[in-house]
Amino acid sequence: MKNNDLETQFAELKTKVETLTKEGAENKLSMIMFSGDLDKVLAALIIASGAVAMGMDVVMFFTFWGTPILRDKGKKVGGKDLMGTMFGAMLPKGAGNLKLSKMNMGGMGTAMMKSLMKKKNVASVEEMLAVAGELGVRIYVCEMSMDLMGFTREEMIEYPNMNFCGVATFLEEAKNSKIQLFI
Amino acid sequence: MSEKIKVDKVMDLKGLPCPMPVVKVSKGIKEIEVGQVIEAQTTDPGALTDFPAWARTSGNEILKTDQDEKVITFFIKRKA
Q1: A96 to chain B, minimum CA–CA distance in Å?
Q2: What is d(CA A90, CA A87) in angstroms, rounded to the nearest whole number?
Q3: Which residues of A touch B26 (CB under 8 A)?
Q4: Is A43 part of the contact surface with chain B (CB cutoff 8 Å)?
């Protein structure tokens, strides 16, 4: 009888441990790329590549003002409606076209910062995005943001591991991540 | 330290700012065998705290750190 008790307890514990292992955080960083500001995007990409160096799996979710970062400046797509065309014209066309969140000063501040970065050998957002791709950082793009702003998949950059998704995909990844950041 | 460390791979990371030294060395260490040593030279002052943090997290060992006026040199043994 005592043996039986132990066996039941053991079975219960075993299921508990299994659930905990399944639900436990993985060595992963999930980032929401909400901002389209040059400084914030650069910081986020530096953290992302650093995390890979530290042995972490990294996922970035681009949403809202973050989506135009992934536009390819060389690609042109037609057939957009009025709002889509307007958003397309007003939002940055790609990673090389972002502005500082502070001290932009009509573009002068951003230009100065970019030349300073070059002088000090700091990688640009475009370069860091390429590094992220090489390192295996996975990118998801929010389908709803794209639709809202009239962006199409055809105008996005070629990135080794890029997919389109909704909020559930992010939450599934974030839930199992040790670190989650909102940029 | 008087004994000389046997180096299997030298990485010149001079002039590269954060995060590239750590990113490159994490790639470089995968190109040597476990037990072998990388000599990494960097001019990034942040590396003084970053390399030990990276080594602790990735499970590798910094055998020695040399520092002259400009260049910081790490001798890192691949453990994992």
Answers
A1: 19
A2: 5
A3: 52-55
A4: no
**What integer pLDDT is reported at residue B50 of this predicted model?**
94
Quote the CA–CA distance of A37 and A65 in Å, as a whole number: 8
CATH class in words for B9-77: alpha beta
**Any domain includes A16:** no
On whether the CB atoms of residues A181 and A47 are closer than 8 A, the answer is yes
Q: Is residue A10 part of a domain?
A: no
| Band of pLDDT at residue B1, cut at 50, 70 and 90 | low
- What are A5-41's pLDDT values in tens digits? 899 999 999 998 888 877 778 999 999 999 999 999 9
Left, alpha or beta for A107 (phi > 0: left; psi -120 to 50: alpha)? Answer: left
- Structure tokens of A127? 């370069």
CA dihedral defined by B43, B45, B46, B50, rounded to 10 degrees?
70
Chain A residues close to B54, C-beta within 8 Å: 53-54
Strands (E), chain B: 9-13, 37-42, 61-67, 72-77
Mean pLDDT, range B48-68, rounded to an integer: 94
- Does residue A127 sit within a domain? yes
| B54 touching chain A per CB within 8 A | yes
Which string of DSSP letters, residue by residue, matches A61-123? EE-GGGGGGGB-TT-------HHHHHHHHHS--SGGG-B-SS--GGGHHHHHHHHHHHHTTPP
pLDDT per position as a tens digit, A90-149: 999 999 999 999 999 999 999 999 999 999 999 999 999 999 999 999 999 999 999 999
> Taking a C-beta distance cutoff of 8 angstroms, is the pair A96, A128 a contact?
no
